[in-house]
Write a structure and sequence with these properties.
This protein is mainly alpha-helical. It contains 35 helices and 2 strands. A two-stranded antiparallel sheet has the order 1-2. Helix 20 packs parallel to helix 22. The radius of gyration is 45 Å and the shape is flat. The two termini are about 75 Å apart.
Length: about 625
Amino acid sequence: AQLSCLARLLAAKNLTGDFSSFPPDLLLFFDPSEVRAETCREFYARASRGNLDLLPRGSSRRTRLLRGALSCLGVRGRRLEPPQLLSLGALVCDTEPGTIPASHPAVLENLKLCPALTGAQQDALNALLLTGHTKYGDPSSWDLHTLQDLGPLVLALNQTTLGLVAEAAREDFRRSIAAAYSSQGHSQREKSLILLRAFAAASASSHPRLKRSSDRCESEPITASSIADPLLLLNYNTEQFDLCLSNEVLIENLEALVDLSLPTQYLQVLKEKLDRIFPSGIPEEQLKRLGPVSRLYTGEEISRWSVASNTTLAALLSPSGGEWEDSQVQQLLSRYLALGGSLTGPLLQEIGGRRLCNLREEQIQQIPAEAVGTAGQLNISSCSQDKKEQLYRKAREAFASLAGTPAKYYCRIWPYLGGAPAEDLKHLANAGVAIDMDLDTFLALNPEELQKLSVTDVKNLLGENLPELKKAENEPAVRSWVKRQSQRELDCVLGIGLQGGLEEPTGTPTPPQPPTSASATSTATTSPAVTLLTTLLATSSPSAASPSSVPLPAVTSRATTSAGVGTNPAGATHSTSTPVPSPTSAPAATLNTNTPLPNPSSAPAATHSTVSSVPHST
């Protein structure tokens, strides 16, 4: 991922013109469309020296790389010429099988660069060698030097090709490897062993099988000292291996034998011998020693094993013995639990999350919470929702002591959050500590529980990873969650451009705001206070103070504003004047709402008792 990002960065900065200073591995991640036509031959020649295993075989990036190279080199058909082969290098490993026999024989040198050939490519390779039109000549003429020159291609030789090689040449080849074996390093020894085993298997299959009726070992009996020889299998085909290996030597040296990484047909011989030695079933102490032989047993045979201790189960599950089939592991665990066994943290690590999901719910229920707490990070993404919830509850119990430190708690429980209810997720989101949940974990949450989270919950959970949510907006769970949220809240709280939320309703009249004392106006026809004041003035004594000198009580919000009263653009209130009836000796009083109304509390007392008793209408 880092190489890919770096390649994109260099391309963005237009630094792909001069690639001679870049390592070949980095060039594998360049976009072929960025490669210039005038330098493409040099580019692909350098890129072909990179480690192609960095790109998965069959991936789109690796396919584009080959297509770009073929286009650059002007390849139109299947045949590849020496100059093209020189530029393609290891990229030839991804060509179609038909390209091998159709190309110049120099293609064999390119094929030596391939970590592995497909079955169809191996058949094509043998077809080319059998023509005799290569620099190696006809297989019947091969000698030790020819086999050594073939190098890794000897692993792809089939029975037909190898059967044409002289026996003396094969023996010389075996001895040459044996001579160099002791001086080789560890990694080179492993390669030599792989080569020898493949060569031995091919050599054994090229010989006619001995008749069983002889029923005797025609080679040297296999002993503990001969088992230590890595070239053991070159001296025994499968039938002689069976006849020359005694039961006593097998039982005493079982671990040493399985450590030889024997081909499957030789492992099958060991299984058949063990079944004959223990017709009533293999004892538990021997089960621990089976190694890769255990992988040859069927589920029905495993159901009869005596797997009672966790040490036996751990030895059987060890990856050093090779890959198990899921059905075999299911039967093995069922047998162990049926015999009263308990799954521990280390055992759960050996089992792995994917196979743990294959257990039945009642079997998962038997797993102690402390085992989940010591199992490390298990990938339970393939579990059903019910099983995820089971495992989450156990994990929550196991990590309960860390709940006071949310960051540490999250680091331990995140693999199990796919089974968490919304209530727990909300608690985690509002713990006051940034947990920065990654997008993969977020998308693995229970979709039903995800819909119950608020916009703020999601923001707090993702933290600095919130922008990543935009990339997943088309995920069904995310799309459904967005539709439930307010679009305004999505914009204001998240601000990452998510669309599709609920819009605010439009076209609804704004409710009237209550008037304030500064803007309230009154009319004679609707104001009770003005009506009362008019009556009082009409009945007052001529000797009383003039109405114009009597302060009017303030009109409060109880007054009803006339529909004709409005506000001008400057904010002033329109005047609404209503003549107030008065005694004949007094001029008509006028209410002008443009003039601030006095506060009753500061007005002088009126001389007429009826006027002074006017209540304050607030």
